[in-house]
Amino acid sequence: MEEANPIVPGFFDLGLVVLGILFLALVIWALVSIFRSTESSAGKLLWALVVLALPLLGSAAWLIGRYLQRRQATVDG
Known about the structure:
The longest helix is centred in the first third of the chain and has 30 residues, at 7-36. The chain has 3 helices and no strands. The mean pLDDT is 90. It has helices at residues 7-36, 41-53, 55-76. Residues 25-64 form the Cardiolipin synthase N-terminal domain. InterPro entries: CLS_N. It is a multi-pass membrane protein.
């Protein structure tokens, strides 16, 4: 019987760490974007709570919505 290669789990663990860092960066990016936005204070608080409660979905919803809003603003002039 062959022994398991100890390097393989290391790469898997490294991949999980990288994904975790990217996930955390996405949430931080969304939160910074929320607090720098022109939303009302209540709107900022609500969006921040959504991002903290549902980090992946909330961050994606905020960032995609913000992108579409900015794109519409440039089209409208």
